[in-house]
Amino acid sequence: MDSSTRLAYVLFQLTPTRTRCDLVVFTGSNKKEKIASGLFEPFITHLKYAKEQIPKGGYSITLRPPLPDSSWFTKGTLERFVQFVSTLKVLERFVTIKNEITQIENSIQANKILNNDVTVQTEEAKIIYTSAKKLFSGGSSSSDRGDLPEKKKEGEPRHLSVEGMDTTSGLCRLE
Predict the structure, then answer these.
(1) Order of strands, edge to edge, in the sheet holding 60-63?
(2) Per-residue burial over 121-149, b = 16 or more CB atoms within 10 Å of its CB, e = otherwise
(3) Rounded CA gap, 93 and 96, in Å?
(4) Please, what is the Cα angle at 77 between 93 and 45, to 5 degrees?
(5) Is residue 115 predicted with pLDDT exceeding 80?
(6) Closest CA to 77 of 63, 94, 98
(7) SS3 6
(8) Is the pLDDT of residue 164 over 50?
(9) Taking 90 as the threshold, does the pLDDT of residue 13 lie above it?
(10) Longest C-alpha distance within the chain, in Å?
(11) Helix (H, G, I), strand (E, B) or coil at 133
(12) What ranges do the domains of the chain cover?
């Protein structure tokens, strides 16, 4: 097939994982020729229509010219497009952008996990604080309202003993 041959349509035949493709061109007389094979992602980066077709499923995407008599829709145009998408500089840019997106997604995920840990730690601290308040105040209703237990004497340390474990060596001041 000659480079100046007008095309009826172009078909991206996708692998089951939709990560790789074969690019097949078809003429009006139903002659076909595979002109490229490789990663699919670089192509959809430049083809909005193809990108929109991915969520619809299926293993092929057909590109047709916008008008029936589009003289620019030739095998040569597609070959130049494939060459552009396949150049090292474009592929490096694509990989760089993809890595940056992955880093951003990982950062967002880590932030969500960190925020979740802070929430869990805050909840644990509230439980410990409420338990300690009840223990020091004798479980009075004032602790249920969130009031601090009254001080016995200014600056006097309080000691906590839990089932035979004396914590006086690590005095805890309640203020």
Answers:
(1) 32-39, 20-26, 9-14, 60-63
(2) eeeeeeeeeeebbeebbeeeeebeeeeeb
(3) 5
(4) 30
(5) no
(6) 63
(7) strand
(8) no
(9) yes
(10) 100
(11) helix
(12) 9-86, 88-144
